[in-house]
Write a structure and sequence with these properties.
Layout (H helix, E strand, L loop, with lengths): L1 E5 L7 H17 L2 E6 L5 H6 L3 E4 L10 H14 L3 E5 L1 H14 L3 E5 L14 E4 L2 H9 L5 E3 L17 H6 L7 E6 L8 H14 L5 E6 L5 H15 L4 E5 L5 H6 L2 E4 L1 H9 L4 E4 L5 E3 L5 H7 L12 H11 L5 H16 L1 H17 L4 H17 L4 H22 L14
Helix pairs in contact: 1-14, 3-4, 7-8, 7-12, 10-13
């Protein structure tokens, strides 16, 4: 089968990593001919390293359906003649839905790193969601072709011993007695910003009494603010406790150097694959370590959470202190982390599920009238609803905060439980 993967713009991020790694796995494990179509960016280097053929797409910074993107996709489809187009995320889905229907090419949609169930999404394509909880919600909302595809992790590429941590630790002057916290994240205000600020604050509070070093791997528009907070923390503690590495296309050395990983989504999963204890952070003051007691909830809701909205940072501070003061617990928690990822998120298992969905999407063509009705419904939402051009830009910026508030009102695992998982 020939598959065109229509992915996000190739900035450094979890969805891009997932798209590239699964595309390569479909080729290597199942023999499919896979082509990657996306707007250029730094992650193209990873695609090339995986041996994937890359076709550049236009940049669409407003996330609006555009005739330019549709025409480019149409031209790619006519030239490549794929059996299937695998589309990542909702804004690509809108561009692809109308184009592929006119070209009579089946499509498959991955919507794995968000917990927002947009009404805008067409209902007729087979659509994969990233948590069992979101699949349940999608089916309850009438999406009969909702399936589960959790974020994949290459557990051979990411495992204890695969990378020597000593050069990384030497580069950043990490001492033997230091307890290293690592977070790998896009440095952005929305979604990630709160957890990054709270983690820096926790080091400020604990850093006088504990030899903590926080390594922040990533880049983004919030970096200047975060570096200012880090400088204030370092000055208050009197040592270089918070360090920024910048963006790393291959952050495995940072994971290998960690004693504890602090994060969410795919970055937390990769830390687990390295056999590291993980404290999962989210929004509205959520944090919880991955333990045998919390693991099932994290699998169902996702590697994320929504807390009680408290302004206090006591919970995350206490979670870090508890692990830092009980170093003898860290190896066992790390072993459990690794087992959790291998059991649920190993890329071979996830790719086998994806391959089945690819076959199903090609075999189970939808009736023309159903697709037309679905297209008219989506078009009406685009034109008249909150997704109209004047509103969609604000939606992109605000949907995480709105979702957090609405989910908090619906069902809220709080305190030591877990919440819902939008992103990696």
């Amino acid at each position: 089968m020939k598959i065109v993967v229509f992915a996000l713009h190739m900035e450094v991020g979890g969805s891009q990593t997932n798209a590239i790694e699964l595309a390569a796995a479909l080729r290597d494990l199942h023999g499919h001919d896979v082509v990657l179509f996306a707007a250029p960016g730094p992650m193209v280097e990873l695609a090339k390293a995986k041996g994937l053929r890359f076709i550049p797409a236009p940049h669409n910074k407003n996330f609006l359906p555009t005739l330019h993107m549709m025409r480019t996709l149409r031209d790619v489809v006519r030239r490549e003649r794929p059996d299937l187009v695998h589309v990542w995320d909702w804004w690509q889905c809108i561009d692809a839905f109308y184009t592929l229907h006119l070209e009579r090419v089946p499509m498959l949609v991955s919507y794995t790193l968000s917990d927002v169930l947009h009404r805008l999404l067409p209902k007729t394509p087979l659509t994969m969601f990233g948590t069992p909880e979101l699949v349940d919600r999608a089916k309850a909302a009438g999406r009969r072709r909702a399936e589960l595809l959790v974020p994949p992790v290459d557990v051979d590429l990411n495992k204890p011993g695969v990378v020597d941590p000593r050069p990384f630790r030497d580069r950043y002057n990490i001492e033997t007695n230091d307890l290293v916290l690592v977070t790998v994240s896009r440095l952005v205000t929305q979604l990630k910003g709160e957890s990054l600020r709270r983690t820096i604050d926790a080091v400020r509070v604990l850093g006088r009494d504990l030899p903590l070093r926080l390594i922040i791997v990533g880049d983004g528009e919030a970096r200047e603010e975060l570096e200012r907070l880090a400088a204030e923390t370092n000055a208050e503690i009197g040592r270089h406790a918070v360090i920024f590495t910048g963006e790393l296309l291959d952050p495995r050395a940072a994971y290998a150097a960690a004693d504890i990983v602090v994060g969410m989504g795919g970055s937390a999963l990769r830390g687990m694959a390295f056999g590291k204890p993980v404290i999962i952070v989210g929004e509205q003051n959520f944090s919880s370590p991955l333990t045998p007691e919390t693991a099932n909830s994290f699998y169902y809701y996702g590697i994320y959470g929504i807390g009680d909205g408290s302004q206090s940072n006591t919970r995350l501070i206490n979670h870090i202190r508890a692990l830092a003061e009980s170093r003898d617990r860290l190896p066992a928690l790390g072993v459990f982390s690794r087992q959790f990822v291998v059991e649920h998120f190993a890329i071979e298992k996830i790719c086998a599920q994806l391959e089945k969905y690819c076959q199903d999407a090609v075999a189970q063509r939808q009736r023309v009238l159903a697709v037309v009705a679905d297209g008219l419904r989506t078009a009406a939402l685009l034109h008249f609803g909150k997704y109209a051009p004047n509103g969609i830009r604000h939606l992109v910026k605000r949907h995480e905060a709105k979702t957090a508030a609405s989910l908090l009102a619906q069902t809220r695992p709080v305190q030591e439980g877990v919440g819902r998982s939008p992103k990696g």
